[in-house]
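Box S1 | Example of a co-folding query
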Amino acid sequence: MLVRCPAYLSKARIAASEQITNNTRQLYCQCLNLNCSSTFNASLSFGEIIRSPKQGSSKPDHTKQPDLLSNPNQMDLLADEPMYCAG
Ligand SMILES: [Zn+2]
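Box S1 (continued) | Returned holo structure for zinc ion
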């Protein structure tokens, strides 16, 4: 997931994140523009439910949908512990 650097609106990557509250996560970002290379933080917060979960729904079944719960190629923004990207 990329965001925009506030300095020159270049693409920036999320290098790490930390859970602040149940609905808010702090993102630590790094600009990909080599002439800028600034670092900044941003917040990711829950907005509102647009469509309610299906009645009787539950957490995904790990045996049927193993990729839904974790993917080593994706940063888990919902992780409880701080996450850091390699590279
Ligand atoms: Zn920048």
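The CA atoms of residues 60 and 67 lie 10 Å apart. Residues 1-46 form one domain.
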